[in-house]
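This section describes the prediction task in plain terms. A model, or a person checking by hand, is given the sequence of a single protein chain and must write out its three-dimensional structure as a string of tokens. No templates, partner chains or ligands are provided. The sample shown here is typical of the held-out split.
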Amino acid sequence: MKITETLFFLSALLLVYTYVGYPSLLKLLARLFPRRHEMDERSEPTVTFVISAYNEEDVIGEKIENTLRIDYPRRKFRVVVVSDASTDRTDEIVRAHGERGVRLIRMEERGGKTAGLNVALASADTDIVVFSDANAIYHPMAVRKMVRHFADRTVGYVVGYARYQETADTEAGTCENAYWELEMRIKKWESDFSSVVGGDGAIYAIRRELYEPLQPDDINDLVNPLQIVSKGYRGIFDPEAWCSEKPAGNFRKEFQRKVRITNRSFNGFLRFLGDWKLLRTPRFTWQILSHKILRWFSPYLLLFVFGLSLPLKQGGVPWILGRLFLFGVMLLGILSIAGYLGKRKSILSYFYYFLLMNLASATGIYLRVRGKTIRTWDTVRGSGSGGGMPLGILAFPAVVGLCLIVPMILFLADLGLLDGACRLCAYLSAALLFYTYLGYPAVLALTCRREAGPVIRADWCLPNVTLLTVAYNEEKVIGRKIENSLQLDYPRDRFRIVVASDGSTDRTETIVRENRSHGVDLFPFAPNRGKVAALCDAMEHIHSEIVVMSDANVMYEPQAIRKLVRNFNDPRVGAVSGKVILAKDNLSYGNAEDSYYIIEHFIQRMEGKTGELIGADGAMYAIRRSLFHPPAMDTVLDDLAIPMSIAREGHRVVHEAEAVGYEPNEQEIGEEFRRKIRIIAGGFQYLLRGPGLPGLSCPSLLFKFVSHKVLRWCSGLLTLMLFLALAENSLGSVAPDRYLVGAFYGMFGAFAAAALAHVMRGMKNWRVLGMLHYLCMLNLASLAGFYLGVLGNQNVTWRADAAKNWWRVPLASGCKTGQPDRGEP
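The expected answer:
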């Protein structure tokens, strides 16, 4: 306990030093022990002005015009634009300024900013090189202000002041501007005391002779200054040399930028970890450790202090300080949620920003420790959201939950209320689990009898139909799929068959081309980007009234299309889901899955009667083409996102039990487990994005969505909460509830039986043991899917090999599977 208390005190002091102590001490030392240097306002060395660009067609023209207006002698000023294999009009715009002395260096293959700078600097022969970004607009005197410092031979680099413009337009911009103002003050104090730590990619100048080629993984505005300082030079920060640039615009983009910067900066620092030359500059070494290393690792330090505060012995100063820290953590979690949900320009957004940026640092460090360094970059400007939240930003709910739940449990224990809270949690979790699997179907059976008007079907309804199959490396089944599609009973003059190949590398596209004479169209897309990307691209070329989505390994009954489209005779119907029967020959969990799907198909029928079917079966569902809205390109569950968007607009989504297809299921329990993980991870991805969810204006749809999907996805968490609450009541309570004690040992026995059935395959054939084993698999998949979904750790592309090691996949890659996803669990 003494060791724990000592570590807690030291870690807490280090945390306070990181955020408050270092800036305060640095300011004092900069005033007491300033380091002077010479300046010459008349200095005019030759300058190469290097602009890094990737797909900057929106700003590169303005940037070049701004650069050519910089107040500097033209004969001593050269402008170079390095294009990192841009795919838009960036290069064309730059070439149009060639007659004005602007030189384009194009990288034929994308290698990242640093690789481009190495090429540019190899041909630069001027005294000074100025680095800039494409969106940084310079003050006319900015270059003169920077080069005046190079009159002092001890100065190796100069960093300017990048001001953010239009920061008041968004909460993210306001928060970033406040952080950046503090950062600039720290840079000024570092410059006065010793040497500014790091450069700034937007406005940064060096002596050309001091540049050394960098590794592709290096971030130039940190590694290059470290190289220069190790040679005995120093860096100056000049706030009078300034440029303006737009902030990222929203928290998601700012998060991405911070992840990339932290990841690459830490990678660059590791290169100099054993460089004894830096140790000859103790002031600078102290600055980089305090300003960079401690700041990067501050989220892990916060977590360490958080962990040390939990076991502190009750009573005494350490315990009081620990509880105060936990109270502060709870308050941060509450204020962060309020900042996330609050109005624009709210002061609460700063708390959300603080937590989010710590998550970004943690993500960047984590990726580097796992061996991934982010070389390339994408522009972070623009007004759109750019899809959903990426990477570790999806961990925000989990972190906030940790901030709130763990301290609350401790405070309840301090007050002697933990037993009551655990009992409440046990009963609530058990009730929700019962409702999820049995209660909701019962509610549907009672309420869905009041059908909101039967669907007006008509067998003579024969609109123009396109059967769209998205395929990736399906050479084993695509021939049979085409043959099956050609045999469907539907008028040929109103029926089109399309196969969209998502970058297939086998004979899939060849086989489809061989059937062109039979009226089968091929849409080849490359490279492999995922089902949704290929689907959306294919839909741009499809104009039939109805589109039927299918998987390559699902074979339809001859009347399936007619049965689906007859529902569209009713103008209220926007989407129709069919019934896909799984063939589970000799699978160890086949009987258990049959029992599970009896309930699932019952729910689908009941929801379909009300016209509010939640999701569809991705292997067989039809939509009106006019109601299709492209989901985000990284969407995993297209068969949830597309029908839900139709339902949210007030159209009916129904189930057609007579439209039947057959899908072979040859996946044993391990592969089925990984498939379930992907589906649930995709569900949490959809849930966390928010805009696609049914709102309070659609109460019935919202009720069904929460009951059918959200609670099912959360079943693993509910089961875990139930088990932990039962364990605390049975093993840790002074007066345990006897009913809960019985439930605990019953649940423990069920887990043991499921584990035994997993080891002894033959026992899965016993219906009860097989069902227990299958339910445990579902709950474990739910927990893993929650982890991957909340952390953004799933990928939309199809790769069976990566799915086998989903737990080993880095955060930026994710869980992948080669199997198509059905519309469950």
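For orientation: The first helix runs from residue 2 to 32.
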